[in-house]
Design brief:
Number of strands: 8
Structural class: alpha/beta
Shape: globular
Low-confidence stretches: 1-12
Length: 210
């Protein structure tokens, strides 16, 4: 009886509608040196605040999206760096970017793209927002070398209606101890196309060379 009265006075908050739920999932494994780390942080901060991006965001039905920022590395190394945040204009974008630039790095372990995807998928269930479109943007500079097969994680995400895009950091100099990690046969962008991305409109973008 007391529980019933409590629920009536404290109804569950309705999820706010947004046009897109977007997880930005950034690689911070050992192959990500300082220039690559800064490239990701500054690149995401600048992209969110870009005039053209904000125009696209505010052109949707609800005129806003919700994003969060994740850093991932080894199979058990994932962290929600910035929780779900509404972006509905320049001020929100600036605040998000400022946080992104200032927060410290989370990890420097092996590369579990599959772990990063699995962690990101769970965040959609915890979001205080709802959207018809759910997307993970995975940025990274190497192949999956920790945890389960990345294609299994990708396929399970796609089965839930989630789109995965790839933002590939190119490396001029292969790592001496594992040259095929950052420079696999056929090139890293093709590895992402074959193993990581999927869903309607999914794409691979080469976001820099370090």
């Amino acid at each position: 009886m007391l529980g019933s009265a409590f629920r009536q006075k404290n109804p569950a908050r309705a999820q706010q509608d947004v046009d897109l739920l977007l997880v930005l999932a950034a690689d911070v494994s050992r192959s990500i040196d300082t220039p690559k780390f800064q490239l990701q942080r500054e690149g995401y901060a600048n992209a969110v605040a870009d005039k053209r991006v904000l125009e696209a965001i505010t052109a949707g039905r609800y005129r806003r999206i919700a994003i969060c920022f994740v850093e991932w590395s080894g199979v058990s190394a994932q962290k929600l760096v910035i929780p779900w945040t509404v972006i509905d204009g320049p001020e929100a974008a600036r605040k998000f970017g400022d946080q992104l630039i200032e927060l410290p790095r989370s990890f420097a372990e092996r590369t579990s793209i599959s772990g990063g995807i699995d962690f990101s998928v769970r965040l959609f269930d915890e979001a205080p927002f709802k959207a018809a479109r759910r997307t993970i943007d995975v940025s990274g500079d190497g192949t999956n070398n920790s945890g389960r097969d990345v294609t299994l994680a990708r396929d399970e995400a796609l089965a839930k209606g989630i789109t995965i895009n790839g933002l590939v950091i190119l490396s001029d100099r292969p790592m001496a101890w594992n040259p095929e990690h950052t420079n696999p046969p056929g090139a890293l962008p093709n590895y992402f196309r074959d193993n990581v991305i999927g869903g309607p409109g999914a794409f691979v973008v080469e976001i820099g060379r370090a």
